[in-house]
Amino acid sequence: MRIAVCLKQVPSTNEVRLDPETHTILRDGRQSVVNPFDAHALEEAVRLKESLGGHVTAISMGIPAAETLLRDAVARGADEGVLLTDRAFAGADTLATSYTLAAGLRKAGPFDLILCGKMAVDGDTAQIGPELAQQLGLPHLTEVCEITPVGEGRARVRRLTQRGGQEVEVTLPAVLTLVREINTPRMPTLAGVRRGEAASIVRWGLAELGVDESRCGLKGSPTQVVRTFVPVRARETAFLSGDARSQAEQLLKIAGEVLA
After folding, report:
1. Can you tell me the distance from the alpha carbon of 35 to that of 242, in angstroms, rounded to the nearest whole number?
2. What is the pLDDT of residues 206-230, one digit of tens each?
3. What is the pLDDT of residues 24-76, one digit of tens each?
4. What distance in Å separates the CA atoms of residue 160 and residue 182, rounded to the nearest whole number?
5. For residues 72 and 81, is the Cβ–Cβ distance under 8 A?
6. Considering the entire predicted model, what is its pTM?
7. Which residue of 77, 178, 208, 248 sits 20 to 30 Å from the alpha carbon of 42, by its own alpha carbon?
8. How confident is the model over 87-120, as pLDDT tens digits?
9. Which residues contact 18 (CB under 8 A, 6 or more apart)?
10. Cis peptide before 36 (omega within 30 of 0)
11. In degrees rounded to 5, what are phi and psi of residue 27?
12. Which residues contact 170 (CB under 8 A, 6 or more apart)?
């Protein structure tokens, strides 16, 4: 079974920086980690490979520094890493991202399964998986918490719903987005770390993918962010003086200023 896992690089919670002109998150690689939901997708891909045999390809679109995350994916059991990186891909919304990822998957594939995390913790849109399936013309299921292959070209999938759970049989190839409940990601072994460091990460840009530049990055993003900001939190201490009535009046005044 050939499985692809889509990984995204996200900034740590203390390192979110915004471009003042494009209003997009700056991804310069500092303190970046793999998107937590994607870590579960990678673990599930490796588990399926271990039980059924096959090949796992980890693919990501991002800056050159994202290569570190792909090496970590190899250390955790992926067989290869593919990085889609080009200045033309910068500033992409989910539609432009799924377009570029689909091109990379076609070039690296074909695949029996394409696994994604439920959503990215820095965007929370949960759109990449379904949009990727649409770009590739494949069936897809979201909120997946269990995958069981049942025969040639088919798999039984259990997914979480607002009413509990649902079991669905899906024809492969398919795109699935996974929830955290599906597994517990493993830590890489020493041998895995060495394998990741020695891995040759494939890099493809605009020319290698042969995609339409007008559909990539900021140019190909119909979603325009008007304003994005990181909340500024400040504390100021005020001391109340006088009798109880005076202190109550001061407190009421402060509350009015804060809530105004």
Report:
1. 54
2. 999 999 999 999 899 998 777 766 6
3. 666 555 567 888 999 999 999 999 999 999 999 999 999 898 899 999 999 99
4. 10
5. no
6. 0.79
7. 208
8. 999 888 999 999 999 999 999 989 999 999 998 8
9. 24, 25, 26, 228, 229, 230
10. no
11. -115, 85
12. 139, 141, 154, 155, 156, 157, 176
Q: Which residues of 89-121 are buried (b: 16+ CB within 10 A; e: fewer)?
A: bbbbbbbbbbbbbbbbbebbeebbbbbbbbbbb
Which whole-number Å values give the CA distances from 228 to 28, 116, 177, 193, in the listed order?
18, 26, 27, 37
Q: How many angstroms separate the CA atoms of 115 and 95, rounded?
A: 18
Place of tokens 């050159």: 64
pLDDT over 90, % of the chain: 65
- DSSP-derived letter for residue 218 is T
Structural domains in the chain, CATH included, are: 2-215 (3.40.50.620)
Which residue, chain included where needed, has tokens 């979603």?
A: 223
